[in-house]
Amino acid sequence: KYMSYDFNKIISQFQVEGKLVSCERYGEGHINDTFLVETDKTKYILQRVNNTVFKKPEEVMENIVKVTRFMSEQIKKCKDNTRREALTLVETRDGKDYYTAEDGSLFRMYVFVDNATSYQSIANGEVFYQAARAFGSFQKMLKDFPANELNETIANFHNTKDRYRLLKEAIDADKVGRLAAVRAEIEFALQREKDADIIVSAIENKEIPLRVTHNDTKLNNVMIDDETGLGICVIDLDTVMPGSMLYDFGDSIRFGASTAPEDEKDLEKVSMDISLFEEYVRGYLEELGDSITPREAELLPVSAKLMTLECGVRFLTDYLDGDNYFKIHRPDHNLDRARTQFKLVWDMEQKMNTMHEIVKKYYK
Ligand code: ADP
Ligand code: GN1
Ligand code: MG
């Protein structure tokens, strides 16, 4: 369906440098359509923003413009000499931040973050430690960003209770007749429903602060410099919204500390690597210093479990709905993903005490 777009025309709307050489599908994101654009001078990332997921893509862009501007100011001010950059939008020839195609689709272009890698899995503990530093520093940089200026791009994005509500709706509807096949997974999820409001109610009761957070801190959403090994640029800013830093921490552990890919079929291979958990805690807490409150620190271990549970619930819901949300590459892809998440949840439950000890070791 995307081949029907005239990419020459779309790309020519933007202020690209050099002559177009190629435009190919790129990356392993689950949401947007991403293309690598190469010219004879440089590279860009072109994306069609997913408008099933983001009902108001213009509001997503408004947020990204504000946040990237704010961050590049912060980075200019920051005196240390490590190379850091903010994601940079390329304007259209008439000075706009995005281009709207004939069918209403929104296309945007970013400067390609070069000589850096977006890892799909952890090569070694150092990579995860540096990812933690990068997401921690991202969090700190946005500390003074006025939260009321941000649109809520997806309502109740990390409201785990609401994710359960949507799961139950999908169960009741059983739209594509898959319910009978996933009884065990549903039971696993429902047994843990009582935990769903731990973070949400901690925010409501003002036990922990509402902050501006990234909300999608997968390892492949941070660029790691190939030469220095440092996390130099946090990407995928579509879901930057008010939230809890526990969402960011927990989601990082969910994806990066797993011993297997998110869609591994052999569940024997799936567990949470406790030493990777430790590397992330070390990096995150070192970076945050006293910007994290005692209560937030205390909730770090459970946030890993909850974000993993929530993601499993979301994959399972999408499976029951007939795969409308996450991109899939095989028929039972979302079910396989849900299963790895639940296996991880189970494993984290076994390791919860050790996780608490690790946080205590690094939280000063
Ligand atoms: P999605 O929401 O679908 O995950 P992303 O914005 O994360 O979309 O982009 C998908 C992938 O494309 C990323 O995981 C990364 O590998 C690559 N990517 C995105 N933006 C850039 C960029 N500016 N420079 C280099 N690679 C990028
Ligand atoms: C999606 O866009 P991507 O692939 O970085 C999703 C996250 C999930 C993740 C699971 C906007 O992230 O919330 O945790 O898949 N993003 C959105 O891999 O829903
Ligand atoms: Mg992404």
Assess the beta-strand content as a share of residues: 5-15%
Hetero groups in this structure are:
adenosine-5'-diphosphate, 2-acetamido-2-deoxy-1-O-phosphono-alpha-D-glucopyranose, magnesium ion
- Give the biggest beta sheet: 5 strands, antiparallel
Numbering strands along the chain, what is their spatial order in the largest sheet? Answer: 1-2-3-5-4
The global form is globular
Q: Report helical residue fraction.
A: 40-55%
- Give the tally of β-strands: 10
List unreliable stretches of 5+ residues. Answer: none
Whole-number mean pLDDT: 96
Q: Structural class of the helix and strand makeup?
A: alpha+beta
Q: Give the termini distance in whole angstroms.
A: 53 Å
Number of helices: 10
Order of helices and strands: HEEEHEEEHHHHEEEEHHHH
Gyration radius, in Å: 20 Å
Keywords:
binds magnesium ion, alpha+beta, 364 residues, 10 helices, five-stranded antiparallel β-sheet, binds adenosine-5'-diphosphate, binds 2-acetamido-2-deoxy-1-O-phosphono-alpha-D-glucopyranose, 44% helix
